[in-house]
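COURSE: Structural Biology Practicum
ASSIGNMENT: Worksheet 4, Part C
STUDENT ID: 0417
INSTRUCTIONS: Below are two proteins. For each, the amino acid sequence is given first, followed by its structure token string. Answer the questions at the end about the second protein only.

PROTEIN I
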Amino acid sequence: MKDSTNNVRAGTDQQIQAGSSTKGRGDTGSSTERRAGCELPARNMAGMTYEEWMREVNRIVLGISGLGVDDIGDAPYRDRFDDSVAPHDMAREALELADFPFEED
């Protein structure tokens, strides 16, 4: 009986670990983040985490359009973060993809 309980618990622990996010290997301050079996950069060249970068993109989009990034449609946010695109450039791209009517200069 003890073996089956341990097997169930080990399987549950593996499921939890597969869906969890951890930085690098053993939280050593590595520059990668592991999620569901793949490694993602934890910080871009500006030293921002993806969450910090997205908050800044959202702040800029909101200031320009009055809408947040969740309101304007999909954009390649993660790809641009990984490419170290500046938040203001990503905000502009996201708004362009959403056909936002920019005023002509």
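PROTEIN II
(use this one for the questions)
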Amino acid sequence: MGSWVYIDGEPEIFTQVANNILKDKRLTYKSIGLFAYLRHLAFEAKKQGNKFDLDDIVKAHKEGKDAVKAGIKELKDAGYINITPRRNKKTGTFEGWEWHIT
């Protein structure tokens, strides 16, 4: 089971991050870096079938799962990402998570 990802914009050669997230005093430097990585990962996942999961994020760098989850919570609370359950349109069964990254 993986996650589907939707991202505003199409980073190709480099990842762009809007200045508003860099100036947002509600965020730690770690969560800002995580956001940049999520935008990069989202584009890569989109090219390869729109799938990734929390373990993929954790494996990529040295922070552990708890630190990554804390950063994701911080970004969710600030409205920069939204993670919702994805359901099969015909059966209604849970298929994974949709990540909307602004």
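ANSWER KEY EXCERPT:
Q1: The chain has four helices and three strands.
Q2: The longest strand covers residues 94-101.
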